[in-house]
Amino acid sequence: MGVKICMIGAGYVGLVSAACFSEFGWNVICVDKDPQRLADLHAGRSPIYEPGLDDLMQRNMNAGRLSFTGDLASAAKDADVIFLAVGTPMRRGDGYADLSYVHSAVAEIAPHIKKFTVITTKSTVPVGTSREIERRLKELEPDAEFAICSNPEFLREGSAIQDFTHPDRVLVGTDSTRARDVMERLYRPLALRGSPVMFVSRESAELAKYAANAFLALKISFINEIADLCEQVGADVQEVASAIGRDRRIGDKFLHPGPGYGGSCFPKDVAALIRTARENKAPVSIIEQVDRVNHERKIAMTGRIESAVKDGLRGKTIALLGVTFKPNTDDMRDAPSLVIVPMLQERGAVVRAYDPQGRKQAEPMLPGVEWCDGALQAAKGAHALVIVTEWNEFRALDLASVRAAMAGDAIVDLRNVIQPALAREAGFTYSGIGRN
Description:
- This protein is α/β, with parallel strands linked by helices and 436 residues long.
- It has 18 helices and 14 strands.
- The N and C termini lie far apart (61 Å).
- The mean pLDDT is 95.
- A 6-stranded parallel β-sheet has the order 3-2-1-4-5-6, with helices on both faces. The protein has a 6-stranded parallel β-sheet with strand order 11-10-9-12-13-14.
- It has helices at 12-23, 35-42, 53-62, 72-76, 100-109, 129-140, 160-165, 177-186, 188-191, 202-233, 237-245, 266-279, 285-308, 337-346, 359-362, 375-379, 399-405, 420-425; strands at residues 4-8, 27-31, 66-69, 81-84, 117-121, 146-150, 170-173, 197-200, 317-321, 350-354, 370-371, 384-387, 410-413, 429-431.
- The chain is elongated and about 75 Å long.
């Protein structure tokens, strides 16, 4: 028996999830209210950059399993499962998750629940949100049959399709036997491959998502501080990270030093967890420190660049490679470049930038930047080359050609993608992170 899915929200999480569920063979209708986004989707074009997503969409649209609409009523009325995959951005002022889009979607679907329906949050939401959704729906439609679940996503931008189809675990928070039966059927294709499908309480599922992201943010801030210590004592952070990462209790993921974390998840989820903990009188002081360290990290990167340029930044040209918060995405949310570039400009530098996918999103966010079509073009006449995002093409730069195009000799490698010896052979003064 098939599963009919209504996915509310065709943003990053909703679109990837909808496409992957349709690949399982389920019928998925994805709802979005943005006319331009719908036009792109109907044409088979993904409005976000994610490797493999366009092909996955096209294949399942052609098979009749994936469709898009702006009409929530028609999409919701026959659905077995309604996913809430709308945005939950960080609220201004208090750092809490803004649930206005979630509650608006709930109010809109309420009149269209005509049979038993599982309604589940796919967006990251604070602990207690599923209970609040349940309360609101019962108030709006007392006779409706439904169950509320929490089913958080654990997708990494740039490898989201692989993460969805080969997950470390699928987490479902529910206290309803009927909902569990539906969700087991929904995820049976993954269970048959051996992926663990875990059923827990709704509160545990909601908190686990925040705890997972906070722990990964902690690992990033930890290795960044260790990198600073390495520079002072003469150690190499990559050797240290490799050594401790071999310990299975620690693992080698997220032990890569850099200019601080960004993206759609870590900054807002860390802030929301801190707020939740404070409200419940159980402060997470370690995570509060992670948040502070990461903010200061981005600011400190400008100082590193300034130190590498002879006679200061005023009047100098900086070639900046990579502006997105990570490679293989066009996402600019909380990217380190949004802190670094304005600070360079404030200190009198001219910034020339190149990013393989990020320019369209970044251009309105980084006024005054001169945009280039390649790394070599950005380097022409520059006094320093700064690598901010570790796109693979930057690992294979023709360093001799880049050096010949530049006016200065500094490379500031904030991602440690260049081999220092090769940079020096090409005539560069090299500065990395945590390297002696």
